[in-house]
Amino acid sequence: MKSTVIRFGSYGLSAGVIIFLLHLTLGIDNLDYSTNEILGYISIFISLSFVFFGIKHYRDHINNGTVSFGKAIAIGILISLLVGIGIGIADFIYTKFINPDFFSNYEQMLVDKGREDEIMEMTSGLAALFMIALVTIIGFIISLISGLILQRKP
Q1: Which of 28, 68, 84, 89 ranks highest by number of CB atoms within 10 Å?
Q2: DSSP 67
Q3: Measured CA distances, 34 to 38, 60, 106, 111, 118 (Å)
Q4: Rounded CA gap, 89 and 13, in Å?
Q5: How many CB atoms lie within 10 A of CB 62?
Q6: Are 72 and 143 within 8 A, CB to CB?
């Protein structure tokens, strides 16, 4: 199980960092915040697709064609955590080094749109932790669905 989690978690982590940083750095001047948010969620779901493939690989190649629902969820959550760490690191790098004015610019956009009630104090570290939690929660849901689809008993 450990090798499967590390292998597919690394794939997802790499995909998350690359896709997340690419769409933020290449699209920041050309795209509005809503479009970047949608692209961010797409990058999360693409990166978390490795949850399904990791569980399937474990079932088909490591565990003789069987995997329990609990084991599938455990594999999926661990892969999701690695993906979350990757995207959290990418978010931290982006908001701390690539675009350190991101939070103030985002707050100004909210003020301009009359959505001041949505403003909260955010730092790069807090945003990274939020991304890790968000990705892991979405990954848990994907793990549940994948576990239901892929479970096979001996």
Answers
A1: 84
A2: B
A3: 6, 40, 11, 15, 15
A4: 10
A5: 13
A6: yes
Is the Cβ–Cβ distance between 59 and 150 less than 8 Å? yes
* pTM value surpassing 0.85: yes
Assess contact for 5 and 79: CB atoms under 8 A: yes
Coil/strand/helix, residue 30: coil
Q: How far apart (Å, rounded) are the C-alpha atoms in residues 127 and 88?
A: 8
> Is the CB of residue 5 less than 8 Å from the CB of residue 71?
no
Whole-angstrom CA distances from 146 to 32, 53, 54, 59, 66 are 33, 9, 10, 12, 14
CB 43 within 8 A of CB 14: no
d(CA 24, CA 125): 17
> How far apart are the C-alpha atoms of 11 and 14, rounded to whole Å?
5
CA atoms of 55 and 153, how far apart (whole Å): 14
pLDDT in tens, 82-136: 999 999 988 898 889 988 988 888 888 878 888 877 778 888 999 999 999 999 9
